[in-house]
């Protein structure tokens, strides 16, 4: 059925349709700029990437949690026991979830000349 439709499209002058589908549509989405994301992510870089005042808890989280991998699996009750306010806990948990899924990474600081 699909092959018959394709043959009909080719004979009726729909050849351009097939050629546009097989061309590379993703070439325009790739940029040629350098990587704007932080390569090595630690707790401090992660919290700075979130912003919104969350970075004020960096020292507390580094001393109590340790490394970044432990932060990625930390639950809300642990953050609450550390005295982090609700709004900041929600932001930290939201962005750790996005980071684990690969949907978000903290941006590198722009180079200042």
Ordered list of secondary-structure elements with their pairings:
Elements: H1 2-11, H2 15-22, H3 43-50, H4 58-64, H5 68-72, H6 76-81, H7 86-101
Short description:
By secondary structure, the chain is mostly helical. The chain contains 7 helices and no strands.
How many β-strand runs? Answer: 0
The percentage helix is 40-55%
Q: Using only CA atoms, what is the Rg?
A: 24 Å
Shape: elongated
Domain Small ribosomal subunit protein mS41 SAM: 43-102
Protein name: Small ribosomal subunit protein mS41 SAM domain-containing protein
Organism: Crotalaria pallida
InterPro entries: SAM_Ribosomal_mS41
Describe this structure in words.
This is Small ribosomal subunit protein mS41 SAM domain-containing protein. Residues 43-102 form the Small ribosomal subunit protein mS41 SAM domain. The chain has 113 residues and is an all-alpha fold. The protein has 7 helices and no strands. The model is unreliable at 17-21 (pLDDT under 50).
């Amino acid at each position: 059925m699909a092959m018959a439709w394709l043959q009909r499209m080719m004979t009726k002058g729909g050849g351009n349709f097939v050629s546009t589908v097989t061309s590379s549509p993703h070439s325009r989405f790739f940029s040629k700029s350098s990587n704007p994301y932080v390569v090595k992510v630690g707790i401090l870089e992660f919290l700075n990437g979130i912003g919104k005042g969350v970075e004020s808890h960096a020292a507390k989280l580094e001393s109590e949690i340790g490394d970044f991998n432990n932060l990625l699996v930390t639950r809300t009750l642990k953050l609450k026991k550390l005295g982090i306010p609700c709004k900041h806990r929600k932001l930290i948990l939201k962005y750790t979830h996005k980071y684990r899924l690969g949907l978000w990474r903290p941006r590198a600081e722009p180079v200042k000349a």
